[in-house]
Amino acid sequence: MCSVQDIEDDFSVRKTKSDESMRKCMKCEEQACVIIRVNDAFCRSCFLQHCTHKFRSSFGKSKVIRDGEKVLLAFSGGNGSSAMLHLVQQGLSKEAQKKLRFKPGLIFMDEGSVLGLSTEQRRKDHRYVLEIMRETGYPYHVTCLEKVMGLDQTSESPLVGTSTTSTSTELTYDNVESDLQKLSISNTAGERLKDMLDSTKSMTAKEDLIRRLRCDLLAAVARETGFSKVMLGDSSTRLSVQLLADIAQGRGAQTHLEMGFADDRYGDIIFVRPLREFTSKEVAMYNKLNNVEATVLPRLATKQPSNSSIQRLTEEFVTGLQSDFPSTVSTVFRYETMSVKIVFRWKNSVGCQSFKGLLCLKCLPDGCKGN
């Protein structure tokens, strides 16, 4: 009779036989330098082609972005947004075989007021990000999360996704120093935002509130500057964490909006996620092989323990499973695909009226009535 020790010994022997340094590329049989999953080994050239094709195919399959359309890239300097910016630059370069045909712009949102940072500290932390944005040559804009407190929430509020008739303003190529000056706004808005977060008791609710306010401000800036699409750098790993966290909070019926390629809750402004099929490992390896530097700016959940919020606990759970079982994220995505089909059938059967939450812009249960 075999024992547990025998099984463990056999497993250890099998593991040592498969020397990862001798793996061959699954496409060209050259020496592999990246192993995405157990059987997915790529050389540098094939891996970069794989990433480029996956990024480009997301636009081709959805057909959401039209030729010549203005797209606003949400850039924070992290791994996801840095990889997204590099892929866009490669797609718009002269060497690209099939060039991307939209007109990009960049936006950086400062969230230092949430952490209570001083203006000098915020300028010091964000100087590197602003220099990268300026070097791209694309029009860019700098804003602060506090500005969401000044949005009109009555008649033509950007928070409810209605089209505005205000004149579009072009983004300017200001120098870095003047952009750093723009990070400082009135203390009144910062105090109002701080009071709102202080009145929120749990860290879970605070993280969710900041995420909603961030999207509201991105949509408002996109309207003001004449952009119709906002591009986010969310990877499949991050979206899987968000999916399970939303289900844990009782929002399973609306997860298709958070996971899909296109999110049209804001009406005239559509959020797109071209990196939704990239894992965090693929994003990190893409940046390393292309020498794309990324920075991590502190946020509310930075250095918080895993049990501080549902989001942090779910993140540790998903990343821990992914390290031992590489199919974890893809399994979660298969669930998301099934949920989209179920929600689509449900909406067609009962008919969903335009009763939506003010912040999340998701359909409320009381607003769903039969035909």
Verbal overview:
It is built from twelve helices and eight strands. The protein is of the alpha/beta class and 371 residues long. Helix 3 links the parallel strand 3 and strand 4. It is globular.
Number of helices: 12
Helix content: 40-55%
Overall residue-averaged pLDDT value: 78
Strand content: 5-15%
Which strands sit side by side, in order, in the main sheet?
5-4-3-6-8-7
The count of β-strands is 8
Approximate shape: globular
Distance between the termini: 64 Å
Biggest sheet architecture: 6 strands, mixed
Instruction: Output the radius of gyration.
Output: 22 Å
Q: Show unreliable segments.
A: 4-18, 153-174, 367-371
| Helix vs. strand class | alpha/beta
Order of helices and strands: HEEHEHEHEHHHEHHEEHHH
What labels would you give this structure?
371 residues, alpha/beta, two-stranded antiparallel ribbon, 12 helices, disordered C terminus
Offer a quick outline of the entry.
47% of the residues lie in helices and 10% in strands. The chain is built from 12 helices and 8 strands.
